[in-house]
Design brief:
7 helices, 4-stranded parallel beta sheet, 223 residues, single chain, 4 strands
């Protein structure tokens, strides 16, 4: 990862019109609040409905949580899109396998979004237990300008997949299906609500970890 560049995150589902766009837009909105300019979140589909907008019920979910669903167009996942990505978050274990078929070098940087979120929860719990309090933000970089803060943030996220994988054994679900986000495409509104119930907590966990570990601005106390 080039620490002079934003952290690049890719979310992946099947059609790229229901699940991964919600994850993309909500992660981007939340991460922009944590470290402005520090992240670029995009999405793609393993069998994308190329050029299609986000499904209306998915767009409603994005708006509910303060994101912007407009100007979205589905993209087909390919090796070019994967090139240079720092973290891949898939909606199911099957999608993870398809990502790795395209680029096996991403093995240690590709997770289902729910498993990644559980790993971050474990890391946060460990940090809180070791300090006796909510984990503090990462130290401010020596260089206090925007570039220094962005570089410190990128360096932190460069090591995050390995730290997360190190606690995988502590975050295994009782049922492997709990790693997956249900596909609501062409299904009833209730299934979209189930998707929301599965996806939203994972997004919250990722945003919380980003906030707790964001490089501090000089003179500003940690969150």
């Amino acid at each position: 990862m080039d620490t002079s560049q934003p952290v690049r995150i890719l979310t992946v589902c099947t059609g790229n019109i229901c699940r991964s766009p919600v994850a993309e837009r909500l992660l981007q909105a939340g991460l922009d609040q944590v470290v402005p300019g520090g992240f670029e979140v995009a999405s793609a589909g393993t069998r994308a409905m190329v050029g299609d907008p986000m499904q209306p019920l998915s767009a409603d979910i994005v708006r509910t949580f303060g994101g912007d669903p407009d100007n979205f167009a589905a993209r087909q996942l390919n090796q070019k899109i994967l090139r240079g990505v720092d973290l891949v978050l898939t909606m199911t274990s099957a999608h993870r396998g398809e990502v790795l078929q395209l680029d096996a070098s991403l093995l240690k940087r590709t997770f289902t979004i729910r498993e990644f979120a559980r790993m971050l929860d474990v890391l946060d719990q460990r940090a809180a237990a070791s300090s006796g309090m909510v984990p503090a933000a990462a130290p401010a970089p020596d260089n206090h300008d925007d570039g220094g803060r962005l570089g410190a943030n990128a360096a932190f996220w460069k090591g995050l997949p390995a730290r997360a994988a190190g606690v995988r054994h502590l975050s295994l679900p009782a049922d492997a299906a709990e790693n997956d986000i249900i596909d609501p495409y062409r299904r009833a509104p209730e299934v979209y609500r189930q998707m929301e119930d599965e996806l939203a907590p994972a997004i919250v966990s990722i945003l919380r970890h980003a906030r707790l570990n964001a490089p501090a601005w000089p003179g500003v106390p940690p969150s």
